[in-house]
Amino acid sequence: MQKWMFPLLCLLLTACSEDSDNEKYASRPPVFADIVCTPLAEGETQIRAGQSFVVTAQQERKGRLLNKATYQWSDVSAQLSHKYVASVIYDNQPENPTDTIKAPAAGNYKLTFKARYNASGNTSWWAQQYGSTFQTSLADNSGRATYTTGGLFYFDVTVEKTITVLP
């Protein structure tokens, strides 16, 4: 290593470490309150088999300093048909993630929304506040949200809720 490289490396590491605990540079994932289902059929208020409906992962608090976000919706039965956007640049499009779904039959379906948010700031502030894995109940205790810090680079968020589809 060149003699001049070591002092430069020390300077860079010191500067970065001062910012790692600074909330100003902290990336945070969005915090989700619920998954809400809205029928698309005119005049309908209930989710019915064979009819399309929109599911929305509602954010209680927006994320910050996030770059690319990838989304995936699924159900345990793998019977629901989906039409969702797979990725966005979150800081430019912090809207609630949605999916348009059609259930083939009446019944209960466990919906899962998974997202990965690439951090453009540091993730250590979140990890110091909440730990590397943090779990909360949804607003009406009908499901849960799990937040995992992926080292310095990303957050994984999983939101799960069971929905009922009527005949």
Main attributes of the structure:
167 residues; mainly beta
Q: Please tally the helical runs, counting DSSP H or I stretches of 4 or more residues.
A: 2
pLDDT < 50 runs, ≥5 residues:
4-15
Helix content: 10-25%
The overall strand count is: 10
End-to-end span in angstroms?
71 Å
Percentage of β-strand residues: over 45%
Mean pLDDT: 87
Q: Based on CA inertia axes, which overall geometry fits?
A: elongated
Total domain units? 1
Account of the protein in words:
- It is a single chain.
- This protein is mainly beta and 167 residues long.
- It has one domain (24-165).
- 14% of the residues lie in helices and 47% in strands.
- The longest helix has 16 residues, at 5-20.
- It is elongated, with a radius of gyration of 20 Å.
- The relative contact order is 0.23.
